[in-house]
Amino acid sequence: MSGKKLHEALMGIMRGASKIALLLFLSPYCFEFCCGVTDTITSTHFIKDPEIIVSSKGVFKLGFFSPEGTSNRCIGIWYNTTSLFTIIWVANRDRPLTDTSGVFTISEDGNIQVLNGQKEILWSSNVPNSAGVNSRAQLLDSGNLVVRDNEESVWEI
Predict the structure, then answer these.
(1) pTM attached to this predicted model
(2) What is the C-alpha separation between 25 and 95, in angstroms, rounded?
(3) How far is Cα of residue 42 from the mean position of the Cα atoms in its chain?
(4) In 10 A of CB 143, how many CB atoms?
(5) How many other CB atoms sit within 10 Å of the CB of residue 60?
(6) How many other C-beta atoms lie within 10 A of the C-beta of residue 54?
(7) What pLDDT is stored for residue 30 in this prediction?
(8) Where does the pLDDT of residue 32 fall: very low under 50, low under 70, confident under 90, or very high at 90 and above?
(9) What pLDDT is attached to residue 10?
């Protein structure tokens, strides 16, 4: 192979390697964009086990998990930026799911709820006259989960 052809071949490999490196670098962001990972839950955009939401800067996750030593399922918030799995809040600690049929959603009255496969309420924010169809729950980079109706905060942990 001549020096010129070898040079062209090496440059082609380098261009390909640069593209691969760029793809590897961007893949987590593309995954979140393409696969709909968001920081918000609404009545029409709820999460089912094992789906998650992630705070806008990726500091916290909210989703289903199994507490250590059990196969039960709970919904909780944990740090996303550390290798240690550190839960900071659990919704249905007293009534965990016994399978992976769980749904975390906003009800018609604006409360956030954990439901099992039979649509039984295992946990609810239980805010009287909280809101309605415009409600949304957003996971903040502080780790707080805020339920809003339009822009008014009606519940927060």
Answers:
(1) 0.75
(2) 40
(3) 13
(4) 16
(5) 24
(6) 18
(7) 41
(8) very low
(9) 58
Residue with tokens 């670098």: 25
> What are 71-103's pLDDT values in tens digits?
999 999 999 988 889 999 999 999 999 999 999
Residue type, 30: C
Q: Where are the beta strands (DSSP E) in the chain?
A: 40-42, 47-48, 52-54, 60-65, 74-79, 87-90, 103-106, 112-115, 121-124, 135-139, 145-149, 152-156
DSSP 8-state assignment for residue 83 = S
Tokens (6 digits) for 8: 């062209």
CA dihedral 91, 31, 110, 152 (to 10 degrees): 100
Sequence-separated (6 or more) residues with CB below 8 Å from residue 88: 60, 76, 77, 78, 79, 143
